[in-house]
Amino acid sequence: MHPNVTSKEKLLLAAKELAKTEGLSALQMRSLASAAGVAVGSVYNYFPNKNALLTAVVASIWFDMFHNDTTENTRNMGFCDAVSHLFSQIQKGIAAYPDFFAAHRVIFDEGEKENALKLRENTFSHIEKNLLNALETDPRIHPDAFDGSLTQKALVSFTFTHLLALWNSGAKDCDTLIAILSKLLYGNQEVRP
User: Residue 140 burial (CB < 10 Å; 0-12/13-18/19+)?
Assistant: First the structure.
């Protein structure tokens, strides 16, 4: 008989390891129980169904990618450096969880898709807030960079939309986007060493 797991966190760690090695779409209650060395009933004590498990794993992966490292590291960065850092974080996430972005769109039952979308939107809102903060506090930005037709919020939205497009297309870098943003925001100032 398998022992019971004493924490949800231990199960989430085991579930994320399974997602790394076998893919998010392969995550099942029984495979998690086996990987964690517990009875299947122990998994159900923390996750009443597969969708609850998947939602918790997706939330934990999003948090690992963007909340832990990105908030602290972008606090004192200029905007272009924050955009580069964000792109780097997503590249690390793709490397760690190869099917995450493709699979998490389709693994949920119809009834859970709304919750999964809310989770994604909360994460995206957090990311955009950090980008806006980096933009607002960047001392190198040229004073004439923004006017009535281009606002800081609009530039953050534009930037994030293009980052998503780069990720979805499998781009290996965001150098062109950074070059455009640098010219717009910093003018002819030297931005990179």
Answer: middle
pLDDT tens for 149-181 read: 899 999 999 999 999 899 888 899 999 999 999
Find out whether 136 and 129 touch, Cβ atoms under 8 Å: no
Predicted pLDDT of residue 111:
61
- Tens of pLDDT, residues 109-132: 556 667 777 777 888 888 899 899
Which positions ≥6 away from 7 have C-beta within 8 Å?
A: none
Q: Burial letters for 74-83: b for 16+ Cβ neighbours within 10 Å, e otherwise?
A: beebbbbbbb
pTM of the predicted protein model? 0.77
Residue of 88, 60, 69 lying closest to 130 (CA atoms): 69
Beta bridge partners of 150: 147
Alpha carbons 170 and 172: distance in angstroms, whole number: 6
Sign of CA dihedral 21, 83, 162, 54: positive
- Tokens at 170, concatenated: 């499998």
Closest-CA residue to 107 (of 163, 168, 54, 151)? 54
Say if residue 152 is exposed, middle or buried (CB neighbours under 10 Å; 0-12, 13-18, 19+).
middle
